[in-house]
Design a protein that fits this description.
The complex is a heterodimer of chains A (281) and B (276). Chain A is mainly alpha-helical and 281 residues long. Chain A has 13 helices and 1 strand. Chain B has a 6-stranded mixed sheet with strand order 5-6-7-3-8-9, with helices on both faces. In chain B, a hairpin with a 2-residue loop joins strand 8 and strand 9. Classes of the chains: A mainly alpha (281), B alpha/beta (276).
Chain lengths: 281, 276
Amino acid sequence: MTSADSEAALFSVNAPLSSRDYLRAMWSRREFAIALPVESMRSAHRTTLFGSLWHLGTPLLTVLTYYLVFGKLLKVDKGIDHYLIWLTIGVFSFRLSQASVTAGSTSINANNGLIRSMRFPRALLPASAVGSELMGFGFELAIIGAMSFAAVGASRRWLVLPFLLVVHTALNLGFAFVAARLNDMISDVQRLIPFAFRLLQYVSGVMFPIQALIEAEPGEHVVLAKVVAWNPLLRIIDTYRWVFLGTPLTASDIARTSAIAALCVWFGFRYFRAAEHRYGQ
Amino acid sequence: MNDRTRLAISVRDLYVDYEIVEQRRSAILDRVVRRRGTGHRVVRAVKGVTFDIHEGEAVALVGTNGSGKSTLAASIAGLLRPTSGEVLVSDVPRLLGVGSALMPGSTGWTNIRIGCLALGMPGDEIEERLSEIADFTELGEALDRPMRTYSSGMRARLHFAIATAVKPRILIIDEALTVGDAGFKAKSAARIEGLVADAGTLILVSHSPGEIRRQCSRALWLDKGMLRDDGPPNKVLSRYEKHVAGAEPPQSVAAPMASSTDPASPTTPRDTATAP
């Protein structure tokens, strides 16, 4: 028997791919990653009356609610120019993160049928969920752009948008990977995510300028000040506001946020892949 | 068992265990306090199995319910990770099981598209071959309905059509054809024959002696997770059938074994249709 010859071509069916080969396998199935959310949405919206109209309706109604409560009732808009646009930017960009991580966390469970019958890089599932939310964000970005154009006109700062979207997506992707694995291990995670985001919303300056509130009482909120200083989502929202409204922003903030986002996606991808063989079982 | 041809699959001292949760408590509680003996139990489904399969071979895998056949099949396909030992292959095997719907809420058409995309077929090729794949299923207007409304036979037709659309070099069929009607069985058998003739490799998990004798050149008998026999189908089947008839009275074959202690339950809740 020519065992050495014939075994040369064999490989272990469980051998993990190198990151480069794994990414290559993901890239070769990009059409799958694009088609999957489109088809899921098509079957999901069959049951609601206005279908995908709610994709825009929900955030707009949220903005309206916050505008009445925080703008008209609590009057947190003092010192903020164009509060309605400022709020809209906060709500829309925060929602992108929340929707991405939520969709990522359920992406394994929602596609159990596929996972059990076919082999493909599992990271495609959270990645395609995040990508699909990003596509939907295009509409919201158009609304923000129109509002900002009407109020303050176009600006050269808009050219930064693609870079900002990359950083924002890297952050969302990293957290979506981690949430997907955690939710597959412990299904209770899915119930905790909304609360985590509610808390995060208050320290991200979505409805009111949290940094200004903290700075108004120095030494009063030491821990909170630290949290806010390191919260990458707050910086990202601030950067959107800088792009559309010209609110102040420092270069070191952008650098720090980009570094955190890169770290997030790197860690999230590795953390998700470490349990690759366990998904769906 | 031809030593001249190249190896397609080499299974070496394979053990597969898995944990089953008997009482559903809070999942968080389970993670935090791993109480021994109460919730989790380790089931050893495959215990030290070793064999080689060469290209062009069609091998049947027989055994009673819960003998570990489906676990072995899923491990060879790389969908289950072995506890120890290894599975070497010449190409990534494609597993065809009595599958659930890929996307239950979507139509048969969408399921074909998504399934082929997940297997790595390029989108334009799918569009080109969509009608051919759909024709093979013979599902007609049912393809416009959501897949969750399909019977198991209809699902099997769809799965088979997708799994064989791109010629797999190694195909593992886990009782997927038993639910099909006579017409589909003949049609799928012809396609499988073509595949094996073309230096493909087949593992067929089946309870049907007729199917095994027609399609396979070799049979493996798995008993309680161990390899009990390996040889020509006629010889292995007659020993296996004698064992089943002698060891247990016919009326008690399926019921007590398949209940709570069925070692193959997570992957084979469908492992039911034995005709003793």
